[in-house]
Amino acid sequence: MTFTPTADDTPYHRLGEAKVRALSEAFYDAMDAHEPALARLHPLGPDGRVAEGVRARFALFLVEWLGGPTGFSRAHGHPRLRMRHAHVPVDTAMRDAWLRCMTRAMEGCDVPGDVRAYLAVRFAEVADFLRNVAG
Question: Domains in the chain, start-ordered, CATH in brackets?
Answer without folding.
Answer: 11-129 (1.10.490.10)
